[in-house]
Design a protein that fits this description.
233 residues; alpha/beta; five-stranded parallel beta sheet; two-stranded antiparallel ribbon; 9 strands; 36% helix
Length: 233
């Protein structure tokens, strides 16, 4: 059984969904510490002027976990962001098909930034027909950190393989996983090119850029990544 783990980020890039698509179980690390520098409350879209950051105002203090951070909806950020998205993507091929339902997800009320981000990802995964079992670390009563925490989650789920992002190479040791009977695999996903609005291609945009321009065409993503990697993950 393949397990992957990731913190709940705001409208993330296609790479996260590629990881989810290649997992049997996906765990949201929603009780990790909130970081204003991570993508927990922001991401980027493409505009005629280039990259634009969409950022959610939040209320938090240092040390708060993602699941306890409240979005400051009283500032009307949702309405402002939806207008920004509409302004920049209204001419995209699939915008009219997808935007109304996406907007409904955004405009709903949530208890935390984690709940919002996870709800968005359910919507995107449903569109792509990506269906791993989805769990939250906050429901697992695990107190360890970093690599030890990852291994503990994998053991709790009887994982035979852990599918990791490349960024974790700096603190993970393959032998530590092997000693627990878990294969450590790194997902070498590279951004794939697709049709965009506005001049030259910009990689690593929010998934919104792909779905508004290309629809929920997951077969295209798999084929493009497979071509880059010569059929190997």
């Amino acid at each position: 059984m393949i397990v992957s783990i990731h913190q709940p980020d705001y409208i993330p890039w296609l790479g996260l969904y590629y990881k989810m698509a290649h997992s049997d179980v996906f765990v949201y690390l929603d009780d990790a510490q909130f970081s204003n520098e991570a993508a927990h409350n922001f991401n980027v879209i493409k505009t005629p002027q280039g990259e634009l950051k969409l950022k959610i105002p939040v209320e938090y203090k240092f040390g708060d976990i993602i699941n306890d951070v409240r979005t400051r909806d009283e500032l009307k950020w949702k309405e402002k962001q939806m207008k920004t998205v509409e302004l920049n993507y209204s001419k995209a091929a699939y915008f009219k098909d997808i935007f109304p339902n996406f907007k409904n997800v955004i405009m709903s009320k949530y208890n935390s930034i984690a709940d919002l981000n996870i709800a968005i990802n359910y919507f995107i995964c449903d569109g792509f027909n990506i269906k791993p079992q989805i769990l939250r670390s906050s429901d697992m009563d695990i107190k360890s950190l970093r690599e030890e925490r990852v291994i503990e989650i994998c053991k709790k789920l009887d994982a035979t393989e852990y599918l990791s992002g490349n960024g974790a190479r700096v603190y993970q040791t393959e032998e530590h996983f092997e000693h627990q009977g878990i294969k450590l695999t790194y997902l070498d996903y590279s951004p794939v090119e697709y049709k965009q609005l506005w001049k030259d291609f910009l990689p690593c945009m929010s998934v919104l850029d792909f779905i508004f321009n290309c629809g929920f065409d997951w077969d295209y993503v798999e084929q493009a990544v497979g071509s880059q990697l010569n059929g190997n993950r």
